[in-house]
Amino acid sequence: MLRLAQEILADDRLMHEDSLLKMEDTENKILEIACSHLISGNASRINVAIVARKRRKEDVGVNKQLVPVLSGIALTTYLIAENFVGRVSRDCEQTNSMQPTPESAETSLLSRVIAYAHLQFALARNILKLRREVDVLVFHVGNDLVLPIIIGKLVGKKVLLVITGSLSITLSSKRGDRSAFQIALAIIERIGFRISDKLIAYTPSCATFFYLEKFSDKVAIAHEHFLDLDKFKPLRRLEERECIVSFVGRLSEEKGITKFIESASLVHQAGEDVKFLIIGDGPRADAARNLVRKRNLGGVLTIAGRMDHDQIPSHMNIPRLIVLPSETEGLPNVLIEAMACGTPVLATPVGGIPDLIIHENTGFIIDDCSPEGLAKAIIIAIHNPNLQAIADEARKMVEKEFSYEKATSGWKAVLESVLC
Fold it and tell me: Are strands 84-87 and 76-81 parallel, antiparallel or unpaired?
């Protein structure tokens, strides 16, 4: 505190001859200096814990980017999962972003409720174990983890909720209606929003898509996405590539896998000389293969299965177009990786996508995601005479917005705001 007081007194902006500054301005300056010390000064670097809805450290895909970003700011970074609590380092093992989430063999409602309750109590217990070690709890993919959020608040921690998606929206897209369970889940999520100190949205469009307007006073914009741009880069121009259209992601209904296959059939029927490729795995993998056979697309569409993370840059340089027909998204890595590799993306305007894709400038937006609308949009996109220029602009956007420095800068601003 003595050091802080000395700096405030020594600041020539406060001791300037223009002494007519209002007391309010002086107080704001003192607050600004205090905040800078809380975050970047040696006196008070903070300890952060990431709370994730996974069983083990190895399951947590958040390791890939959020841990390195927060470790670049905080004194110590911890990870709290269902069966793991402990420190993680900046150079932690990176999990495969294309690893499919295992489908549980237990599908009864009772077993799901028991597993859900166990997760909440386990995370709450692990938060209590670290109550003397951490200052801030960052809940990642945890909108509905109300019990751990409450425990975090009760032990005096700042709680940040990263809104990467919505279970209630995902359920609604799967079932096509608002079931009682989906409504209950939406209410639980809203309780979490109200309790938390900050709601972190990846982009302004994410905040709008997830209906955060009512909580605008606690919404902050930050993301953990960054790429090695020496690895993710264009290796060949579009005219040098075969006319291939790819789907890369989880094979699930909300990601639009069925619509993609149906649209591929329509493009083929229209006489277009286009091949289609699906990379990924998930609960609809068998159904997708059956649909390919039913539509007689054996020589047109290939389902290649899961892809290792180190293969992604080379794959992103194969197609002329990547399609993301999702019904819900946060800020998809596939989109950023494709743009970095100079591959145009056709996507639905969900989550943070509209902040990255400017139609016919950095990519293509589709509003009609029916198979017919998607097929029409694919044909228009692959024949666009400015396709290479669009790919070049997309690469420039990624270079500007998705560096490690940009990610840490955004999170540093969030921590400054919550600690002051």
Answer: antiparallel
For 156-213, write each residue's pLDDT tens digit. 999 999 998 776 666 555 555 556 767 777 888 889 999 999 999 999 999 999 989 8
**Phi/psi-derived region of residue 153, left when phi > 0, alpha when psi is between -120 and 50, beta in every other case:** alpha
How far is 167 from 83, CA to CA, in rounded Å? 22
Contact 33, 7 (CB under 8 A): yes
Tokens of 375: 């097929």
Rounded Cα distance, 205 and 353, in Å = 7
- Cα 314 to Cα 241: distance, rounded to the nearest angstrom: 12
CB-CB contact of 374 with 263 (8 Å): yes
Q: Which residue has the higher pLDDT, 32 or 399?
A: 399
pLDDT at 167: 66
Amino acid at 351: G
Which residues are within 8 A (CB) of 321 and not within 5 positions of it... i.e. 6 or more apart? 244, 245, 246, 343, 344, 345, 346, 378, 381, 382
3-state secondary structure of 363: strand
The H or E element containing residue 81 is: strand 76-81
Q: Which residues of 49-74 are buried (b: 16+ CB within 10 A; e: fewer)?
A: bbbbbbbebebbbbbbbbbbbbbebb
Q: How far apart are the C-alpha atoms of 55 and 145, rounded to whole Å?
A: 14
Residue 106, pLDDT above cutoff 80: no
Among left, alpha and beta (phi > 0; psi -120 to 50; other), residue 227 is: beta
Q: Which has the closest alpha carbon to 70: 39, 31, 35?
A: 39
Contact 238, 387 (CB under 8 A): yes
**Cα–Cα distance between 151 and 143 in angstroms, integer?**
15
Task: Give one word for 309, left, alpha or beta, with left for phi > 0 and alpha for psi -120 to 50.
Answer: alpha
- Number of neighbours of residue 402 by Cβ within 10 angstroms: 21
Domains of the chain in sequence order: 45-226+404-419 (3.40.50.2000), 238-401 (3.40.50.2000)
Q: Is the pLDDT of residue 139 over 50?
A: yes
Query: CB of 152 within 8 A of CB of 130?
Result: no
The tokens 């993609």 sit on which residue? 260
The distance from CA 365 to its chain's CA centroid, rounded to whole angstroms, is 19
Quote the CA–CA distance of 79 and 77 in Å, as a whole number.
Answer: 7
pLDDT at 301: 96
**What is the rounded CA–CA span in Å between residue 203 and residue 213?**
13
